[in-house]
Design goal:
About 25% of the residues lie in helices and about 25% in strands. It is of the alpha+beta class and about 80 residues long. It has a single domain (about 5-75), classed as Alpha-Beta Plaits. The strands form 2 sheets. The chain has a two-stranded antiparallel sheet. The protein has a two-stranded antiparallel ribbon with strand order 2-3. The protein starts with a strand and ends with a strand. Bound molecules: iron/sulfur cluster. Iron/sulfur cluster binds next to α3.
């Protein structure tokens, strides 16, 4: 089974992962992650939302999310 990790220190909630994932692995929602000030400001500037992995078991490791994330915030490992 693939392991999907979102680095919340980088994620700005731009939704590209959720849009390209054919397996609905991600949800974009208000973030409750405790972050350093700069990262918090970046998240706030994009509506306070970030990507969260909610359906990891469905991941097929197609790597589409990794390719499109503008912040290089996602890693998928087998
Ligand atoms: S690797 Fe593919 S299936 Fe897995 S989370 Fe990313 S886009 Fe979805």
């Amino acid at each position: 089974m693939a392991k999907v990790v979102v680095n919340h220190h980088r994620c700005e909630g731009k939704k590209t992962c959720a849009q390209v994932c054919p397996e609905a692995v991600f949800v974009i929602r208000k973030s409750d992650v405790v972050l350093p000030l700069l990262a918090r400001l970046k998240v706030w500037a994009h509506g306070g939302k970030q990507a969260f992995v909610v359906n990891e078991a469905a991941c097929t490791a197609c790597m589409k999310c990794v390719e499109v994330c503008p912040e290089d915030a996602i890693t998928v490992t087998l």
